[in-house]
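Section 5: illustrative case.
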């Protein structure tokens, strides 16, 4: 956290509240993921029990800090199971939190961290929805408050299949906010296509979760349109899978971030997430922390506002979307 003097130097007004931040479980619900340096964060023996305990410790710390949005997915190994058990054991938390989950990927790594040809398989079909929605309900012990089609691209049948739309509309009628997450260099096109989907003359999707960070801001205008249309906008990968963490932000492409960190005393990750929360269309910003220390550092973004000069300097970190997603696809599962 920055000192009071450093925070004043970095900000013109009070920054985002803790209520703007959520916790994602992609990094701790399965033994393998693509966050840089993850091998340093998790125990060498990544047993189910070890990662369950890690997940519960993170959820406890986040809830104690004031976080009330928790994100998971069918493809995050046992993350839904871990979150469901945590909710069952903590009735107060269960009554206060918002749970978001996703369907459309099937986890195929069989609890292995590496040496797996394919860790997850994407299919946006009615058959997969029918199976996975039942699984999510059973594992979470409740309906998710937000249920997203996982990783929609412009060619996904999730944007065009009337039978699937009917199923999603039926779930929405039960009180679940249905939506989509996006990935890839054409996120903006996927978001805009989703805004045009209707069932019985009414918009189908009520939420979108997309990647936006200092390196990959291309979806920003489309997300602003989604927010204006009334969708809940959740931002994932605000730290670019660890590329903006202090230990990894070492190259010339992140020099402006390091310089601002040195000047203000705020960590690189807190500044990166504060930059996301500064977007007026970003309703929720996810931390993907794998340790409670990382979580505390990430949540340092709460209350941290960036002045116009700092924001302009950080904007220079943006790289072409195609290059960003090519780099991301080459990150190793570890």
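Designed sequence:
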């Amino acid at each position: 956290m920055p000192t009071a003097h450093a925070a004043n130097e970095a900000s013109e007004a009070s920054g985002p509240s803790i209520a703007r931040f959520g916790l994602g479980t992609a990094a701790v619900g399965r033994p393998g993921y693509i966050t840089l340096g993850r091998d340093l964060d998790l125990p060498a023996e990544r047993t189910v029990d070890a990662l369950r305990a890690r997940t519960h410790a993170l959820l406890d710390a986040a809830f104690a800090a004031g976080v009330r949005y928790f994100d998971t997915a069918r493809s995050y190994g046992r993350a839904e199971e871990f979150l469901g058990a945590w909710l069952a054991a903590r009735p107060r938390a269960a009554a206060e939190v918002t749970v978001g989950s996703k369907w459309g990927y099937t986890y195929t790594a069989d609890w292995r961290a590496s040496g797996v040809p394919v860790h997850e398989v994407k299919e946006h079909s009615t058959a997969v929805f029918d199976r996975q929605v039942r699984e999510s309900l059973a594992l979470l012990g409740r309906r998710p408050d937000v249920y997203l089609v996982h990783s929609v691209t412009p060619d996904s049948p999730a944007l065009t299949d009337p039978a699937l739309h009917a199923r999603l509309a039926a779930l929405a009628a039960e009180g679940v906010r249905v939506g989509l997450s996006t990935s890839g260099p054409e996120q903006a096109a996927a978001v805009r296509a989703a805004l045009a989907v209707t069932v019985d003359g009414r918009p189908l999707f009520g939420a979108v979760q997309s990647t936006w960070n200092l390196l990959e801001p291309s979806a920003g205008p489309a997300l602003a349109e989604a927010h204006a249309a009334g969708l809940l906008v959740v931002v994932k990968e605000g730290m670019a899978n660890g590329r903006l963490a202090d230990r990894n932000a070492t190259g010339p492409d992140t020099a402006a971030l390091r310089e601002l960190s040195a000047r203000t005393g705020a960590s690189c990750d807190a500044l990166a997430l504060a930059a996301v929360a500064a977007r007026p269309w970003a309703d929720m910003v996810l931390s993907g922390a794998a340790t409670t220390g990382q979580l505390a550092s990430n949540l340092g973004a709460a209350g941290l506002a960036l002045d116009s000069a700092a924001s302009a300097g950080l904007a220079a970190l943006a790289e072409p979307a195609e290059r960003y997603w090519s780099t991301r696809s080459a990150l190793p599962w570890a």
